[in-house]
Amino acid sequence: MPIRIPNDLPATATLQGENIFVMEQTRAVSQDIRPLEILILNLMPTKIETETQFARLLGNSPLQVNLEFLHTRSHVAKNISAEHLFTFYKTFDEVRERRFDGMIITGAPVEHLAFEDVEYWDELCEIMDWSHTNVYSTLHICWGAQAGLYHHYGIGKHALAEKLFGIFPHQVEYKNPILLRGFDSVFMMPHSRFTTVAREEIVRVPDLKIAASSEEAGIGIVFTSGGRQVFITGHAEYDADTLKNEYLRDKAKGLPIAVPKNYFPNDDETQTPLVTWRSHAHLLFSNWLNYFVYQGTPFDLQELKKSQPN
Hints:
The protein is α/β, with parallel strands linked by helices.
């Protein structure tokens, strides 16, 4: 089945070039099928790149998926045109009365700030509260995961001695986790962050289950019973060259940045990066869509309030 995205979204040409079946809205409305309604709250400054990354992973499924994009009204994005936001994005006020099968809250480059000091923190909290009754399963990514764990469970973030930057092996930890069905015992996932969450704080919350962790990167994937909330501390969605571009950008600015670990062959930045995480990334998002969204969400989305989580 195809992924449904707005007409003329820049990701369309990229995905079609990768042989990913994309159906524009004008064609999709003629089909008698209810697609999964997925909302992406895109907090990343590189909005077009992030749109493409998530559309690629969500499109690798036999399920038909309708994507909508959300941006915060309390923060003016500086790296994207107002025309792009006006054309392809909605604000929370425009969707607050709607229901969605799933939502993704992306990462954001605001780790240096306390949560309450983030410009759009109050709005984000309102959205996360709203998700309890209006979204069946919410997937939180990197800073979005830390924000979700803090808001919902009071679990704080902790500064690292240096940036966690590279591709790290993770071990499947939770016995028979349906979210990681088909995973190898060890899988790779990119990380790019300055803060972390503590295992001891997570295990004190009975509803939270640690699905995977890394000896070096720490907690990798956490989810709640039933999968209504999923927290991923890394960036499984990253493209092959995302870390390379970040590394070269910071290096050019004279910022302290180490070569991403387990990424360039022989740590040689002139060589093509090794892609070691993509197959598990596709499987992760397919499992989320299938087991935590499709097989749990009601056919009539208006029934979501009747099945809200604790």
